[in-house]
Amino acid sequence: KVTVIEPGPEARQKAQEALIAAKEGEVIEFAEGTFDLEMTLSLEDTPGITIRGRGMDKTILNFANQSAGAGGEGVKVAAGCDGFTIEDLTVRDTKADGIKVQGIKGATFRRVLVEWSRGPHPDNGAYGVYPVLTEDVLVEHCKVTDCSDAGVYVGQSKNVIVRNNTTERNVMGIEIENTTGADVY
Known about the structure:
Radius of gyration: 15 Å
Largest sheet: 12 strands, parallel
Oligomer: single chain
Order of helices and strands: EHEEEEEEEEEEEEEEEEE
Low-confidence stretches: none
Distance between the termini: 34 Å
Shape: globular
């Protein structure tokens, strides 16, 4: 099943409701356009979900007006979401990390841009692409700019491939920490 979310004032609510109601193997697809989102999009306890857009330059999840106390990440994926994929979109101007995936097996980040539009700044989010405590991770063809720490940070994980990515104007480009079986090229 594919659920398509269109831009508009109800987009965040519709997207979050789709993520809550999603069943294993479903796709939440953001149409072409800019989505102004005031809160973190979160997913937990549902395996095999794909979040995708229509292209890095075509689907933009904009968190510039994220509310205080509404989560700081753009997209946050928690335990129970094994086999998660996010692809073909931009995450922009989050208060904290761009995309955080924690405690799952099987996480794919593909053709994702995470950026902060004001350029390098200490108040930008620390990490753009951030799998932590994960196993079987693939990060490919992603671009991250202007983080206050690492563009791609992988920590406390196993079996990781980070390939063909671009990181610019971050404090650190790619950081792999306390991880076994990591291949970065």
